[in-house]
Amino acid sequence: MKMIQSCAGLVAVLLFRLLLCAAAFPTAAEAKKLNVVTSTTDMAALAQEVGGDKINVESIAKGYQDPHFVEAKPSFLLRLRQADLLISVGLQLEIGWLPPLITQSGNPRIQVGGMGYLDSSQFAQVLEIRQGAVTRAEGDVHPLGNPHYWLDPDNGRRIARGIANRLAELDPGNTAFFQQRFQDFDRRLSAREQRWDAAMKPYRGRKVVTYHRSFPNFAGRFGLDVIGYVEPRPGIPPTPSHTIELIQLMRRENCKVVLVEPYFDLKTPRSIGRETGAQVVVYLPSVGGEKQVTNYFELFDYDIDLLIKAFQAGQ
Amino acid sequence: MRRMSWIAIAAAIFAMPLRAQQKVKSQAAPEQPDNAVLMQKIRDLEDRIIAMEGQIRQLKGQPATGQSAAIQKADVQAAVTTSPQTAVASTPSQATAASNAPASEAIALGGAGGSSSKALNPDISVTGDFIGVAGHNPVQYSPSLQMHESEVGLQAILDPYARGDFFLSFGENGVNLEEGYITFTALPAGLVARAGKMRTAFGKVNTLHNHALTWADRPLVTNNLAGGEDGISDAGLSVQRILPAPKGIFLELTGQLFRGDSADVFTASAKNDVSAVGHLRTYKDLSESTNLDLGFSYARGHNDLGSNFLTRLYGVDSTVRWKPLRRSIYHSFVLRSEFIWSQRQQLPFEQRAFGLYTSVDYQLGRRWFVGGRYDRSGRNRLANTTDTGGSIVLTYWPSEFSLVRGQYRFTRYAGNIDTHELLMQVLFSLGAHGAHPF
User: Fold this and answer.
1) Do A64 and B291 touch (CB under 8 A)?
2) Which domains are assigned to chain B?
3) Which of chain B's residues have a Cβ under 8 Å away from the Cβ of A262?
4) CATH assignment of the domain containing A60
């Protein structure tokens, strides 16, 4: 009898504790949610993969917007003011708009060098790093390397790992959670990569032209050969003479695909397409470039599907 | 030292797969699962190399590292204790790491220092502003051709708590500190503070440098009521903070205190003749491509007649912007108006003048902008004398770093002197990529 009583007492205590926990838990969890702001949607997508429901994440730029030319709107300050972590692409991609936003945010956490500032380029394999003298005769060059590095799933994995580690530093209580989310992301990405590699295998060595220099990591990963650019120099709009040269080059090299980022005018690419018989394709450099592309996996699904269709049509 | 250890690690990493491969070969025929494991291992190692490359890039980019290494090198050789300044410049870990390093390696680090010594320098930019004016103007003389301004910008993050910005404006004959201030970015309670000489937060056009304007000149109301080209600009302190507001509305209050000397607007005859400026900014995104910006400004200071004579300025500015995000580099539209009321105490009685401008800018294509401006303003010392005018502007941007602008300007001074002028402007900027004005 005594036994039953004590058991009942224990159960009651346990139940009471559970109730307390249940009551306390949601508010505590909500209060602990980290506010993450990213400069671009790709970083937001990767942060979401590893942060899960333990973070609120928002991107400043939209996926269909030229990330070089985002306006430093004060409304972004409202988000930055509350941010625990700001993730940037770095390599001077955001140089025209992010520094003033950081300065004006009044948020000591996200200042450059602080725990709440993360430059993702440190984790990624960066291509086209300039050595020696660089001048703007070459256009709006990025001397620190090509900032469009996220278009290689291996870099996506590395960035995700870096973000998971930083989230764990900011919220040590959830370290295991972030690491487990990263492991899970890693597994899913590896599985998907096999499919992507297999799908792209027949097209290795194919030649393409892109509008801006935003494709080297993707091309390198999937074995495509970027032979030219619609822009004569980075950041300089197409000129007639360069376009004619490009058309001749494409004919010579039998290049049948022109890839254009969603924020560039299609007039010149279309006339190149008419002259050379090449497919003009609006590919997505970023998550959110089209409504249905909502995460990092769908970005590659979309672009690879698009490329394969273009290669097949160009044959 | 660290460099050596990296090289050693990298060498080890490169060697490891080789050894592993030999092992596999020496065993029986390689089996499938072994291959997969090996590939995974190679991938992991690749990741580690890339992570190290990233760290090296970060270290190279860090200003403190290069300097502390160089200073420490000198110190190690001289075998003296570090001076207080170096102690500030180098963090403890860097100092110990560098002082533990043999002299030869310190030299090797210095050798890599071409870039690391530059990394210490602030971002330097130079903006040239060349203006040509044709047409007769008996009221306001402008030279036919002039190198109007060469502005040197020096900007850097100072330390974890602040950044510094200097803008030195070189005319054809003299130098002027256009702005030079420290911004404290790590203050509690969301405050951002500045100290130094700065363009005050009175309205919109007053805060903008010449090269950020969409015209070759400044509006009549600026010239008549708000200090002309230099604007209301003074040495002092500034504090700003974002205020709580309904969701989606940005509300920011700025309070500033200055010595009280600003062009022909404010004059401090005594030490106590300080001037004050307040600005309230509200901003709302109407959609992702359209937004509305409203500002209310107040400035108060003493004028050139002495400590007993005050000048007060009230301003309202409004800006509507449109820029479709998918085609943001090709099309945009800005409609902006500013209204300024001036109350100047003078003898025999106070002068109350009013002025305004309204401007429109439309981006036709990636490189072409067209705009117009309507001007109307009284004069601060003669409120009943009103000048009116208008301009049409066409701007061409060969690249993000230069522009050529033509402007036709009509002005009717005091209601009866008409002038027609053509302005030509070439703006060009070298060096560090500055922030795009918003």
Assistant:
1) no
2) 2-119 (no CATH), 123-431 (2.40.160.10)
3) 326
4) 3.40.50.1980
Closest CA to B149 of B127, B167, B131, B171: B171
Residue pairs between chains A and B whose CB atoms are closer than 8 Å: 130
Enter the pTM of the model.
0.81
Of A99, A122, A235, the CB nearest to B58: A122
Comparing B247 with A4, the larger pLDDT belongs to B247
pLDDT in tens, A73-89: 999 999 999 999 999 99
* Rounded-to-integer distance, Cα A303 and Cα A286, Å: 10
Chain B interface, best mutation among A78, A101, A138, by max B CB count within 10 A: A78
> Are residues A205 and A276 part of one domain?
yes
8 A C-beta contact, residue B311 and residue B340: no
Per the DSSP assignment, residues forming a β-bridge with B374 are: B358, B390
Q: Which residues share a beta bridge with B179?
A: B167
Across the interface, whether the CB atoms of A125 and B248 are under 8 A apart is answered no
What DSSP assignment string belongs to A72-121?
--HHHHHHHHH-SEEEE--TTTTTTTHHHHHHHT--GGGSTTSTTEEEGG
| Same domain for A201 and A189 | no
Does residue A7 form part of some domain? no
Residue A5 has pLDDT above 70, yes or no: no
- Give strand pairing partners of B311: B301, B344
**Using one digit for the tens of pLDDT, what is the confidence trace for B372-402?**
999 999 999 998 899 999 999 999 999 889 9
In this prediction, residue B169 carries a pLDDT of 94
- CB < 8 Å to B240, chain A: 104, 106
B284 close to A (CB below 8 A): yes
| Pairwise CB contact (< 8 Å): A103 & B281 | no
- The answer to the question of residue A103 being in a domain is yes
In chain B, positions 242-261, which contact chain A (CB-CB < 8 Å)? 242, 248, 250, 252
| β-strands A55-59, A34-38 pairing | parallel
Identify whether residues A104 and A168 lie together within a single domain.
yes
- Sign of the dihedral defined by the CA atoms of residues B34, B37, B39, B45, in that order: negative
The pLDDT of residue B42: 86
Given A162, A193, A224, the domain boundary residue is A193
Question: What is the distance between the alpha carbons of residues A127 and A148, in angstroms, rounded to a whole number?
Answer: 9
pLDDT over 60 (residue A126): yes
Write down the pLDDT at residue B3: 52
DSSP state for residue B48 in the 8-state scheme = H
Q: Domain check: are A81 and A138 in the same one?
A: yes
Note whether A203 and A189 are same-domain residues: no
Whether residue B306 has pLDDT greater than 60: yes
- Compute the nearest-CA separation of A188 from chain B (Å): 15
Specify the pLDDT at position B9: 54
Q: How far is A97 from chain B (nearest CA, A)?
A: 6
Residues B323-338 have a mean pLDDT of: 95
Range of the domain at A288: 197-314
Of residues B164 and B51, which shows the higher confidence score? Answer: B164
Answer for the pair B258, B196: CB distance below 8 angstroms, yes or no. Answer: no
Q: B169: which DSSP letter?
A: E
Please give the C-alpha separations between residue A154 and each of A125, A221, A228, B14, B56, in angstroms, as whole numbers. Answer: 9, 9, 25, 19, 19
pLDDT at position A263: 94
Same structural domain, A187 and A283: no
ipTM > 0.90, yes or no: no
pLDDT: is B28 or B159 the higher one? Answer: B159
Question: Does one domain contain both A156 and A265?
Answer: no
Residues A181 and A72 in one domain: yes
- Residue B331 Cα, gap to closest chain A Cα (Å): 11
- The verdict on a CB contact (< 8 Å) between B183 and A103 is yes
